[in-house]
């Protein structure tokens, strides 16, 4: 892992992940995409290997260009929210088209949830939308 792209760097997983990545001497660059660079920059440790990149991960052309320009070989994909499935699919497409990403770490907090369990009684028929998205994305990865 030399050049890493981390989504949601200011979130509950991304914020503690960045210092852990910086502990590795094999990491050359950590690219952090955001639509609000001033907010994110203030939350980061000081390190020359960190670059905050302004843009939207919902724009597949922008993501593909960032992957190629920064020679991204590893992506930590950590998303939640209403556009998660759409954004994840766009990032998957950007990974394929860029031809430079070799490793994808898809961070999912939904647990071991198989599609058939969505409809059985284990969850009482109440599954939040963000959990259902994780199941759909995990199926795309198989």
Short structural description:
The protein has five helices and five strands; from the N terminus they run βαβαβαβαβα. It is an alpha/beta fold and 142 residues long.
- Head-to-tail CA distance between termini: 22 Å
| Biggest β-sheet strands, sense, barrel | 5 strands, parallel
Q: Provide the helix percentage.
A: 25-40%
**Low-confidence parts:** none
Q: How does this model look, in words?
A:
This protein has helices at 14-22, 37-41, 60-69, 84-98, 129-141, and strands spanning 3-6, 29-34, 50-54, 74-77, 103-106. With 142 residues, the chain is of the alpha/beta class. A 5-stranded parallel β-sheet has the order 3-2-1-4-5. Strand 1, helix 1 and strand 2 form a beta-alpha-beta unit. Helix 4 (84-98) runs parallel beside helix 5. The radius of gyration is 16 Å and the shape is globular. The model has no long low-confidence stretch (mean pLDDT 85).
Mind sketching the topology for me?
Layout: E1 3-6, H1 14-22, E2 29-34, H2 37-41, E3 50-54, H3 60-69, E4 74-77, H4 84-98, E5 103-106, H5 129-141
Parallel strand pairs: 1-2, 1-4, 2-3, 4-5
What are the key terms here?
single chain; globular; five-stranded parallel beta sheet; 5 helices; 142 residues; alpha/beta
